[in-house]
Amino acid sequence: MKCLVLGNWKSNGDAAALKTFLADFAPVKRALIDGYRTGLAVPYHLIAAGDFGSAWVGAQNVSAFQPGAFTGEISAQMLTDMGTNFGLVGHSERRHLMGESVAQTRDKLANLKENQVYPILCVGETLDERKQGRLHEILLEQLAALDVFGTADAFAVAYEPVWAIGTGVAATAADVAEAHRFLRTTLQERGYGHVPLMYGGSVKPANAAELAAIDDVHGFLVGGASLDAATFADIDRLFLEAKGL
Ligand code: 13P
Fold first, then answer.
1. DSSP secondary structure letters along 56-102
2. Is 166 near ligand 1, meaning CB less than 6 Å away?
3. Residue 159 CB–ligand 1 contact under 6 Å
4. What CA–CA distance (Å, rounded) separates 97 from 213?
5. pLDDT by residue (tens digit) across 22-81?
6. Domains along the sequence of the chain with CATH
7. Is the pTM of this model over 0.90?
């Protein structure tokens, strides 16, 4: 995949909301553009609850374990069983609210890869870390989990600065360009030059065109604005227009 515009419903939504969304979401019925996907990471119970058409359906997390005696865990095998196309790993809400470690994100990525679910590693710094000038250090720390991949593996990285998530204030185009350039260079050095870099954090129709115009931005991971089909479709359209797709 070269470009991805994906929504993340987080712990929101129910079967009725998904039905309404899919009925209204025009891109689902559109012919596929080569190398591009739109889609939605829904709560587990909705993964198999609707017809996503040509769009991707994703999980927001996956177990770090293999199937077994791990009460309450959803394994990558179970995601495959449900027809899941992609899985998010290391979202900041999991790192900061659930205490997820780099070692756990590594195991989760490996499990997705083994089960042919497209992995997306989320990385990003807190405001304190940014103020302390530790942006690159934090990104490198979190990128360490990518060592489960060979240079031919397909996966994506989403840059989501913690301070821009759910705040309504996206990172500036200059901040995004700088962070993505660093990620691009780092990934290239490791043989992952083909990996798409998504941006997430208060993406909305008002800023989508400006952020999509940045060369090293190959997609979005959209939280709140993906709950409404028309708003999400607008973001998807603005992204495609900016990229000339
Ligand atoms: P918001 O778009 O609501 O800021 O959330 C971003 C996000 O966390 C996507 O994973």
1. EEEES---SSPSSS-TT---HHHHHHTT--EEEES-HHHHHHS---H
2. yes
3. no
4. 32
5. 998 876 666 578 889 999 999 999 999 999 988 999 999 999 999 999 999 999 999 999
6. 3-8+27-243 (3.20.20.70)
7. yes
